[in-house]
Amino acid sequence: MMAPPPPLLSPTAARRHTPLLTAPSALHPPSSASFCPPRHRPRRRPRLPLSSSAPAAADGDASTSSSAVSAANQRGSPASSVLTFQQAIQRLQEYWASVGCAVMQCSNTEVGAGTMNPLTFLRVLGPEPWNVAYVEPSIRPDDSRYGDNPNRLQRHTQFQVILKPDPGNSQDLFLHSLSAIGINIREHDIRFVEDNWESPVLGAWGLGWEVWMDGMEITQFTYFQQSGSLPLQPVSVEITYGLERILMSLQGVDHFKNILYTEGITYGELFLENEKEMSAYYLEHADVSHIQKHFDNFEEEARSLLSLGLPIPAYA
Q: Basic residues: which segments have biased composition (predicted)?
């Protein structure tokens, strides 16, 4: 049976905590002493090749034999014994709840990333402690590919975690979360690759890494320094999992449409038509001038609400 995850620790207690992996220097928070806020550059998002083999799972029903994966690949769909998309979400929710996070729901409006949910953007402001985890469907029209690209979607699924303040063992908590979804971190090449993040539209930036597994980016790990153009005290830790990429690797499939979402239902059956039609809208039929008018109206409304001291409806 997998050992229970470590609890959220205070910075003082964390200094006495033995980390799960002690060798990589990347497991220590980056220093901001010599770092200046980035100059509104687009965040580098390398399109890395997918691993050709499925990672071995750690234990329990998440494990799968190489013969099962091979047979599934021959059929073009994942083996029924592997962890499903739905089960992965459930395990992450259970894991982060077990270490002290509130499990919340996604935003009720369209967002481009889990960071834009008020549960992150507004809650990282101010001194109050805040530990939360939630699933966030994220819409990015620039990634529209009609469902043809195996790992690039206009609508993808993030699992978002915020730890405020930094408990001091956040990397260790993250590595344990990978074990919770059947990833044996000692059998896979897990790397923290420096990638200091920013979002000009949110007035936000932070220090951190992309997390790669076997050469593929699966998570963004960020120590928030600023949000809404305001310095953050205390600093919050944001962990953002890319669920489609993780599940493609776990299930040993080479296209998002072949991910087993739940028993008997594939990701493609649920979302492929959505990818095709929304890509056609974004790339061919959207009336940009009409949308710009909506944007201008919403901006005016937001400024009016802010002048009334109503930041929550202004942000919504």
A: 38-47
Among the ranges given (71-80, 210-219, 242-251, 256-265), the one the predictor scored with the smallest mean pLDDT: 71-80
DSSP for 163-196? EES--S-HHHHHHHHHHHTT--TTSS-EEEEE--
Nearest to residue 135, comparing CAs of 178, 169, 175, 104?
104
User: Under a CB-based contact definition with an 8 Å cutoff, are residues 221 and 194 in contact?
Assistant: no
What is residue 288's predicted lDDT score, i.e. its pLDDT?
A: 95
Q: Which residue has the tokens 């073009």?
A: 76
Please state, in angstroms and as integers, the Cα–Cα distance from residue 10 to each residue in 120, 122, 163, following that order: 21, 23, 11
Q: What is the dihedral of CA 12, 14, 17, 21, to 10 degrees?
A: -150
User: Residue 305 pLDDT > 80, yes or no?
Assistant: yes
List the chain domain ranges. 85-285, 289-315
pLDDT at 247: 97
CATH superfamily of 85-285: Bira Bifunctional Protein; Domain 2 (3.30.930.10)
pLDDT at 48: 34
Q: Which pLDDT belongs to residue 240?
A: 97
Give the start-end residues of each E strand in the chain.
102-103, 130-139, 155-164, 190-194, 197-199, 204-213, 216-227, 230-242, 260-262, 265-266
Higher-confidence residue of 1 and 173: namely 173
Phi and psi torsions of 190, nearest 5°: -100, 120
DSSP code of 100?
A: T
Does pLDDT of 122 surpass 60? yes
**For residue 284, how many other CB atoms are within 10 A of its CB?**
8
User: What global pTM score does this model have?
Assistant: 0.76
Query: In angstroms, rounded to a whole number, what is the distance separating the alpha carbons of residues 135 and 105?
Result: 7
User: What tokens appear for 71 in the block?
Assistant: 């047979």
Per the document, the length of the chain is 316
Task: Outline where DSSP puts E strands in 152-304.
Answer: 155-164, 190-194, 197-199, 204-213, 216-227, 230-242, 260-262, 265-266
